[in-house]
What we know:
The chain is α/β, with parallel strands linked by helices. Helices cover 36% and strands 19% of the residues. The chain has ten helices and 14 strands. The protein has helices at residues 32-44, 60-69, 116-130, 147-163, 178-186, 209-216, 249-264, 269-277, 293-304, 310-317; strands at 3-5, 12-14, 16-19, 49-51, 78-83, 85-89, 108-112, 137-141, 169-174, 191-195, 219-223, 241-242, 245-246, 283-289. The strands form four sheets. The protein has an eight-stranded parallel barrel, surrounded by five helices. Helix 5 (178-186) packs parallel to helix 6 (209-216). The longest helix is centred in the middle third of the chain and has 17 residues, at 147-163. The chain is globular, with a radius of gyration of 19 Å. It starts with a strand and ends in a 12-residue tail after the last helix.
Amino acid sequence: METTKVRGTRVRLTALGLGAAPAGNLYQAMTDEDAHATFEAAWAAGIRYFDTAPHYGLGLSERRLGAFLRTRPRDELVVSTKVGRLLVPSPETAHRKDPDIFEVPAATRRVWDFSRDGVLRSLEASLERTGLDRVDVVYLHDPDEHWEQAAHEALPALVELRDQGVVGAVGAGMNQSAMLTRFVRETDVDVVMCAGRFTLLEQAALADLLPAAAERGVAVVAAAAYNSGILAHDAPPSDATYDYAPAAAELLDRARRIAAVCAEHGVTLPQAALAYVRTHPAVVSTVVGLATPEQARQAGERAAVRVPAELWRALADAGLLPEAAVPAR
Protein backbone atom coordinates (compact mmCIF):
# COMPACT_ATOMS: atom_id res chain seq x y z
CA MET A 1 0.00 0.00 0.00
CA GLU A 2 1.19 3.52 -0.79
CA THR A 3 2.85 5.40 2.06
CA THR A 4 3.48 9.10 2.65
CA LYS A 5 6.15 10.56 4.88
CA VAL A 6 5.15 13.09 7.53
CA ARG A 7 7.37 16.01 6.60
CA GLY A 8 10.34 16.60 8.86
CA THR A 9 9.99 13.23 10.60
CA ARG A 10 10.92 9.59 10.06
CA VAL A 11 7.26 8.54 10.14
CA ARG A 12 5.63 7.11 7.01
CA LEU A 13 1.88 6.42 7.05
CA THR A 14 0.04 4.01 4.79
CA ALA A 15 -2.77 5.60 2.79
CA LEU A 16 -5.24 3.61 4.88
CA GLY A 17 -4.96 3.22 8.64
CA LEU A 18 -6.84 1.09 11.15
CA GLY A 19 -8.75 2.87 13.88
CA ALA A 20 -8.75 0.59 16.92
CA ALA A 21 -11.69 2.05 18.85
CA PRO A 22 -13.82 -1.03 17.99
CA ALA A 23 -11.16 -3.18 19.67
CA GLY A 24 -12.03 -1.29 22.84
CA ASN A 25 -15.56 -2.72 22.61
CA LEU A 26 -17.05 0.37 21.01
CA TYR A 27 -20.85 -0.06 21.24
CA GLN A 28 -20.55 -3.84 21.56
CA ALA A 29 -18.16 -6.39 23.01
CA MET A 30 -15.81 -8.46 20.90
CA THR A 31 -13.47 -11.23 21.94
CA ASP A 32 -9.70 -11.04 21.98
CA GLU A 33 -9.73 -13.57 19.15
CA ASP A 34 -12.05 -11.42 17.02
CA ALA A 35 -9.89 -8.36 17.59
CA HIS A 36 -6.76 -10.30 16.61
CA ALA A 37 -8.45 -11.64 13.47
CA THR A 38 -9.44 -8.10 12.47
CA PHE A 39 -5.89 -6.86 12.90
CA GLU A 40 -4.63 -9.86 10.89
CA ALA A 41 -7.01 -9.06 8.04
CA ALA A 42 -5.95 -5.40 8.06
CA TRP A 43 -2.30 -6.44 7.88
CA ALA A 44 -3.07 -8.77 4.98
CA ALA A 45 -4.79 -5.85 3.22
CA GLY A 46 -1.56 -3.85 3.41
CA ILE A 47 -2.42 -1.60 6.34
CA ARG A 48 0.62 -0.71 8.42
CA TYR A 49 -0.71 2.28 10.37
CA PHE A 50 -2.65 1.50 13.55
CA ASP A 51 -4.26 4.14 15.79
CA THR A 52 -5.45 3.67 19.36
CA ALA A 53 -5.96 5.60 22.60
CA PRO A 54 -6.36 5.00 26.36
CA HIS A 55 -9.92 6.32 26.02
CA TYR A 56 -10.92 3.38 23.80
CA GLY A 57 -12.34 0.80 26.18
CA LEU A 58 -10.42 2.15 29.17
CA GLY A 59 -7.17 0.75 27.83
CA LEU A 60 -8.60 -2.43 26.29
CA SER A 61 -7.87 -1.25 22.73
CA GLU A 62 -4.24 -0.54 23.55
CA ARG A 63 -3.79 -3.93 25.21
CA ARG A 64 -5.34 -5.84 22.31
CA LEU A 65 -3.53 -3.87 19.62
CA GLY A 66 -0.21 -4.19 21.41
CA ALA A 67 -0.62 -7.96 21.70
CA PHE A 68 -1.02 -8.16 17.93
CA LEU A 69 1.66 -5.65 16.94
CA ARG A 70 4.25 -7.42 19.10
CA THR A 71 3.97 -10.34 16.65
CA ARG A 72 4.93 -8.16 13.69
CA PRO A 73 8.27 -6.61 12.63
CA ARG A 74 8.42 -3.36 14.56
CA ASP A 75 10.09 -1.37 11.80
CA GLU A 76 7.34 -2.30 9.31
CA LEU A 77 4.51 -0.62 11.21
CA VAL A 78 3.45 2.72 12.64
CA VAL A 79 1.36 3.01 15.79
CA SER A 80 -0.18 6.14 17.24
CA THR A 81 -1.81 6.69 20.59
CA LYS A 82 -3.11 9.70 22.47
CA VAL A 83 -2.67 11.65 25.69
CA GLY A 84 -4.96 13.89 27.71
CA ARG A 85 -7.09 11.34 29.55
CA LEU A 86 -5.39 9.51 32.40
CA LEU A 87 -6.92 6.21 33.51
CA VAL A 88 -7.27 6.15 37.30
CA PRO A 89 -8.23 2.99 39.25
CA SER A 90 -11.87 3.04 40.36
CA PRO A 91 -12.59 -0.20 42.26
CA GLU A 92 -15.81 1.23 43.66
CA THR A 93 -17.34 1.29 40.14
CA ALA A 94 -15.76 -1.91 38.77
CA HIS A 95 -19.12 -3.71 38.94
CA ARG A 96 -20.70 -1.12 36.62
CA LYS A 97 -20.46 -0.58 32.87
CA ASP A 98 -18.27 2.19 31.53
CA PRO A 99 -20.53 5.29 31.32
CA ASP A 100 -19.10 6.12 27.89
CA ILE A 101 -19.85 4.21 24.66
CA PHE A 102 -17.61 1.21 25.38
CA GLU A 103 -18.86 -2.15 26.62
CA VAL A 104 -16.27 -2.60 29.36
CA PRO A 105 -16.35 -2.62 33.18
CA ALA A 106 -15.74 0.77 34.80
CA ALA A 107 -12.74 -0.49 36.75
CA THR A 108 -10.93 2.74 35.92
CA ARG A 109 -12.14 6.26 35.24
CA ARG A 110 -10.91 8.91 32.84
CA VAL A 111 -9.37 12.09 34.26
CA TRP A 112 -8.54 15.00 31.96
CA ASP A 113 -4.88 15.99 32.33
CA PHE A 114 -2.89 17.98 29.78
CA SER A 115 -0.08 18.85 32.18
CA ARG A 116 3.50 17.89 31.42
CA ASP A 117 3.41 15.27 34.14
CA GLY A 118 0.07 13.99 32.89
CA VAL A 119 1.45 13.57 29.36
CA LEU A 120 4.49 11.65 30.57
CA ARG A 121 2.43 9.42 32.87
CA SER A 122 -0.12 8.75 30.11
CA LEU A 123 2.52 7.77 27.56
CA GLU A 124 4.31 5.54 30.08
CA ALA A 125 1.01 3.78 30.86
CA SER A 126 0.30 3.33 27.13
CA LEU A 127 3.69 1.71 26.61
CA GLU A 128 2.98 -0.62 29.51
CA ARG A 129 -0.46 -1.57 28.15
CA THR A 130 0.76 -2.13 24.60
CA GLY A 131 4.01 -3.81 25.60
CA LEU A 132 5.76 -1.91 22.80
CA ASP A 133 9.15 -0.27 23.10
CA ARG A 134 7.86 2.96 21.59
CA VAL A 135 4.96 4.62 19.83
CA ASP A 136 5.56 6.50 16.60
CA VAL A 137 2.94 9.27 16.78
CA VAL A 138 1.36 10.85 19.85
CA TYR A 139 -1.73 13.04 19.60
CA LEU A 140 -3.32 15.32 22.15
CA HIS A 141 -6.78 13.76 22.42
CA ASP A 142 -9.82 16.07 22.27
CA PRO A 143 -8.33 19.13 24.01
CA ASP A 144 -11.45 21.18 23.13
CA GLU A 145 -11.89 22.64 26.63
CA HIS A 146 -8.19 22.68 27.48
CA TRP A 147 -6.45 24.89 24.92
CA GLU A 148 -4.16 26.75 27.33
CA GLN A 149 -2.79 23.70 29.09
CA ALA A 150 -2.72 21.55 25.96
CA ALA A 151 -0.89 24.15 23.87
CA HIS A 152 1.49 25.43 26.53
CA GLU A 153 2.21 22.35 28.66
CA ALA A 154 1.21 19.14 26.92
CA LEU A 155 2.46 19.90 23.43
CA PRO A 156 5.85 21.27 24.52
CA ALA A 157 6.33 18.05 26.49
CA LEU A 158 5.58 16.01 23.37
CA VAL A 159 7.86 18.19 21.24
CA GLU A 160 10.66 17.58 23.73
CA LEU A 161 10.10 13.82 23.47
CA ARG A 162 10.10 14.09 19.67
CA ASP A 163 13.29 16.12 19.62
CA GLN A 164 14.93 13.51 21.88
CA GLY A 165 13.89 10.79 19.45
CA VAL A 166 11.56 9.11 21.95
CA VAL A 167 8.57 9.52 19.60
CA GLY A 168 8.53 10.11 15.87
CA ALA A 169 5.87 12.79 15.42
CA VAL A 170 3.43 14.78 17.55
CA GLY A 171 0.11 16.49 17.02
CA ALA A 172 -3.52 16.67 18.06
CA GLY A 173 -6.66 14.73 17.23
CA MET A 174 -10.12 16.28 17.41
CA ASN A 175 -13.66 16.20 16.05
CA GLN A 176 -13.44 19.87 15.05
CA SER A 177 -11.26 21.80 12.64
CA ALA A 178 -11.08 25.27 14.23
CA MET A 179 -8.82 24.41 17.15
CA LEU A 180 -6.77 22.04 15.02
CA THR A 181 -6.12 25.04 12.78
CA ARG A 182 -4.82 26.95 15.81
CA PHE A 183 -2.47 24.07 16.60
CA VAL A 184 -1.23 24.11 13.00
CA ARG A 185 -0.69 27.87 12.92
CA GLU A 186 0.51 28.50 16.48
CA THR A 187 2.43 25.39 17.58
CA ASP A 188 5.09 22.96 16.39
CA VAL A 189 2.87 20.02 15.40
CA ASP A 190 3.86 17.56 12.69
CA VAL A 191 0.47 15.97 12.06
CA VAL A 192 -3.16 16.41 13.08
CA MET A 193 -6.03 13.94 13.03
CA CYS A 194 -9.33 15.49 11.97
CA ALA A 195 -12.34 13.27 12.59
CA GLY A 196 -15.51 13.75 10.57
CA ARG A 197 -14.98 17.33 9.42
CA PHE A 198 -13.71 16.53 5.95
CA THR A 199 -15.99 13.92 4.43
CA LEU A 200 -18.36 13.46 1.55
CA LEU A 201 -21.13 14.78 3.81
CA GLU A 202 -19.39 17.80 5.31
CA GLN A 203 -16.30 19.81 4.55
CA ALA A 204 -15.83 22.31 7.39
CA ALA A 205 -12.07 21.66 7.40
CA LEU A 206 -11.80 23.05 3.86
CA ALA A 207 -12.40 26.54 5.22
CA ASP A 208 -9.60 26.55 7.79
CA LEU A 209 -7.58 23.45 8.63
CA LEU A 210 -6.69 22.06 5.21
CA PRO A 211 -5.43 25.34 3.71
CA ALA A 212 -3.40 26.05 6.86
CA ALA A 213 -1.92 22.55 6.89
CA ALA A 214 -1.00 22.76 3.21
CA GLU A 215 0.62 26.14 3.76
CA ARG A 216 2.68 25.04 6.75
CA GLY A 217 3.50 21.53 5.61
CA VAL A 218 1.61 19.81 8.41
CA ALA A 219 0.22 16.37 7.59
CA VAL A 220 -3.50 15.69 8.05
CA VAL A 221 -4.89 12.28 8.92
CA ALA A 222 -8.57 12.15 7.99
CA ALA A 223 -10.54 10.01 10.42
CA ALA A 224 -14.22 9.07 10.48
CA ALA A 225 -14.50 9.26 6.69
CA TYR A 226 -17.80 7.41 7.04
CA ASN A 227 -19.06 9.96 9.63
CA SER A 228 -19.34 7.06 12.12
CA GLY A 229 -21.45 4.89 9.85
CA ILE A 230 -23.82 6.75 7.55
CA LEU A 231 -21.39 6.56 4.61
CA ALA A 232 -20.26 3.00 5.31
CA HIS A 233 -23.07 1.27 3.39
CA ASP A 234 -23.86 1.13 -0.32
CA ALA A 235 -27.42 2.13 0.65
CA PRO A 236 -27.55 3.93 4.03
CA PRO A 237 -30.03 2.09 6.31
CA SER A 238 -32.71 3.87 8.31
CA ASP A 239 -30.81 3.26 11.55
CA ALA A 240 -27.54 4.72 10.23
CA THR A 241 -25.46 6.77 12.66
CA TYR A 242 -23.83 10.16 12.15
CA ASP A 243 -21.25 11.41 14.65
CA TYR A 244 -22.08 8.46 16.92
CA ALA A 245 -25.80 9.29 17.15
CA PRO A 246 -28.84 8.38 15.02
CA ALA A 247 -28.66 10.26 11.72
CA ALA A 248 -31.24 12.98 11.13
CA ALA A 249 -33.74 12.38 8.34
CA GLU A 250 -32.29 15.20 6.22
CA LEU A 251 -28.77 13.75 6.40
CA LEU A 252 -30.04 10.27 5.67
CA ASP A 253 -31.86 11.52 2.57
CA ARG A 254 -28.79 13.40 1.39
CA ALA A 255 -26.54 10.38 1.88
CA ARG A 256 -28.93 8.23 -0.13
CA ARG A 257 -29.02 10.79 -2.93
CA ILE A 258 -25.20 10.87 -2.97
CA ALA A 259 -25.20 7.06 -3.12
CA ALA A 260 -27.49 7.18 -6.16
CA VAL A 261 -25.15 9.53 -8.04
CA CYS A 262 -22.19 7.33 -7.08
CA ALA A 263 -23.99 4.30 -8.53
CA GLU A 264 -24.50 6.16 -11.80
CA HIS A 265 -20.71 6.51 -11.99
CA GLY A 266 -20.03 2.86 -11.22
CA VAL A 267 -18.84 3.22 -7.63
CA THR A 268 -20.37 2.66 -4.22
CA LEU A 269 -20.93 5.26 -1.52
CA PRO A 270 -18.16 3.86 0.78
CA GLN A 271 -15.70 3.75 -2.13
CA ALA A 272 -16.45 7.38 -2.92
CA ALA A 273 -16.25 8.37 0.75
CA LEU A 274 -12.73 6.97 1.09
CA ALA A 275 -11.63 8.43 -2.24
CA TYR A 276 -12.98 11.90 -1.53
CA VAL A 277 -10.91 12.53 1.61
CA ARG A 278 -7.76 11.59 -0.31
CA THR A 279 -8.33 14.31 -2.90
CA HIS A 280 -6.80 17.06 -0.76
CA PRO A 281 -3.00 17.27 -0.93
CA ALA A 282 -2.65 17.87 2.83
CA VAL A 283 -4.27 14.51 3.66
CA VAL A 284 -1.64 11.79 4.01
CA SER A 285 -3.73 8.94 5.45
CA THR A 286 -7.32 7.93 6.16
CA VAL A 287 -8.04 6.10 9.42
CA VAL A 288 -11.11 3.86 9.45
CA GLY A 289 -12.54 2.11 12.50
CA LEU A 290 -12.60 -1.62 11.71
CA ALA A 291 -14.58 -4.08 13.83
CA THR A 292 -14.40 -7.34 11.84
CA PRO A 293 -12.05 -9.11 9.44
CA GLU A 294 -14.62 -8.57 6.68
CA GLN A 295 -14.63 -4.82 7.33
CA ALA A 296 -10.83 -4.81 7.13
CA ARG A 297 -10.84 -6.68 3.81
CA GLN A 298 -13.60 -4.40 2.48
CA ALA A 299 -11.69 -1.27 3.50
CA GLY A 300 -8.61 -2.41 1.61
CA GLU A 301 -10.66 -3.22 -1.48
CA ARG A 302 -12.61 0.04 -1.32
CA ALA A 303 -9.48 2.14 -0.92
CA ALA A 304 -7.97 0.55 -4.03
CA VAL A 305 -10.91 1.52 -6.28
CA ARG A 306 -10.24 4.30 -8.76
CA VAL A 307 -13.11 6.77 -8.51
CA PRO A 308 -13.73 8.93 -11.60
CA ALA A 309 -13.08 12.62 -11.05
CA GLU A 310 -16.32 13.35 -12.90
CA LEU A 311 -18.23 12.10 -9.86
CA TRP A 312 -17.37 15.17 -7.77
CA ARG A 313 -18.65 17.51 -10.50
CA ALA A 314 -21.84 15.45 -10.83
CA LEU A 315 -22.43 15.70 -7.07
CA ALA A 316 -21.95 19.47 -7.21
CA ASP A 317 -24.32 19.79 -10.14
CA ALA A 318 -26.91 17.84 -8.14
CA GLY A 319 -26.52 20.22 -5.20
CA LEU A 320 -24.95 17.50 -3.05
CA LEU A 321 -21.43 18.91 -2.84
CA PRO A 322 -20.60 22.62 -2.40
CA GLU A 323 -18.81 24.17 -5.35
CA ALA A 324 -15.86 25.04 -3.10
CA ALA A 325 -15.59 21.38 -2.12
CA VAL A 326 -15.12 20.06 -5.66
CA PRO A 327 -11.51 18.82 -5.85
CA ALA A 328 -9.23 20.47 -8.34
CA ARG A 329 -8.16 18.09 -11.10
